[in-house]
Design brief:
Elements (H helix, E strand, L loop, with lengths): L1 H22 L6 H4 L9 E5 L10 H9 L1 E5 L11 E4 L5 H12 L6 E5 L7 H9 L2 E8 L6 H12 L11 E4 L3 H11 L4 E5 L48 H12 L4 E4 L7 H10 L3
Parallel strand pairs: 1-2, 1-7, 2-3, 3-4, 4-5, 5-6, 7-8
Helix pairs in contact: 1-6, 4-5, 6-8
Length: 285
């Protein structure tokens, strides 16, 4: 019965993937293809909004800026030159104005990676869309029914053959959030080495909630009051509400994606929960 359940949900996932491909058939992959890996030792940096990002040195920042990097949502407000900015819901005018001002101040042109969904098409987002280049993708939701073994089966039979060689950049498998989707984007672009920065998984406040920010920047002022709750570790732990968790996702990706896949953090003070997970679990000999 378990095998039948997994096979049925694999077929559902495959149908969703094909539907997303059909919906994006007119999207030009060219703007994203310029970020393809050209050597096996290149690192794909993924930057989040955790406060550990404030601990980076200028040398750390320069290393990220010299490589290919992508920020997630509110990390677009950091004083850091990245190549790709992943944005989903832009909830209010203050957030949109702050992101626009920061992106306009950068020397490196940025490509916004945007999940094209009707609920994300706010007036605030539309203003950003008109100001910056956008690569819009569709999500193909993975049907797991809160069963980890079902996800493992779907990863092996449906996702893995479509993630690496000749991956379609216009579609992303979705079940574990934007952090996992950006990791899958890096795989699709040919990267085998990943470094997470400011991905603290609830162990720190957000970067703008500390007195001194990255590169000595003043904290971003949340005028709308929407962005000041402290992140919760429970949001990122394994539980029935999220299958797979990000930890499970990395375990499966490493097991199924090849021995040359590697994952690390840039976390000078060791404040990130992800640093501890990689050290004590995923990368443990």
């Amino acid at each position: 019965m378990a095998d039948l359940h997994a096979h049925i949900n694999a077929l559902i996932t495959c149908a969703r993937y094909l539907g997303a491909q059909l919906a994006t058939r007119g999207v030009n992959e060219g703007p994203m293809l310029r970020f393809r890996a050209t050597a096996p030792d290149q690192v794909f940096y993924i930057i989040g909004a955790g406060a550990s990002v404030n601990d980076l040195s200028e040398a750390d920042c320069a290393m990220i800026e010299a490589a290919t990097s992508a920020s997630i949502n509110m990390a677009a407000l950091l004083p850091l030159e990245v190549d790709i900015t992943s944005l989903e819901l832009v909830a209010d005018a203050h957030q949109a104005e702050s992101i626009a001002a920061n992106l306009q101040s950068r020397k490196k042109p940025v490509l916004i990676w945007y999940q094209d969904r009707a609920k994300h098409a706010t007036p605030h987002w539309e203003r950003l869309r008109r100001q910056f280049p956008v690569f819009a993708y569709k999500r193909a939701s993975v049907s797991v029914r809160k069963r980890l073994e079902t996800y493992r089966h779907i990863f092996r039979t449906v996702m893995r053959p479509r993630l690496f060689d000749g991956a379609d950049l216009r579609v992303s498998f979705a079940v574990t959030g934007s952090l996992a989707r950006l990791t899958l984007l890096g795989c699709a672009l040919g990267y085998r080495r990943f470094c997470y920065v400011g991905i603290d998984l609830g162990s720190t406040p957000y970067f703008w909630q500390e007195a001194t920010g990255l590169r000595g920047a003043a904290p971003w002022q949340d005028k709308s009051g929407l962005y000041n709750p402290k992140p919760s570790v429970a949001d990122f732990q394994t539980g029935p509400a999220v299958v797979p968790s990000f930890h499970d996702f990395l375990r499966i990706l490493k097991a199924e994606g090849g021995q040359d896949l590697s994952f690390a953090t840039l976390d000078p003070k060791g404040r990130s929960n992800l640093t501890r997970f990689l050290r004590d679990d995923l990368n443990k000999a």
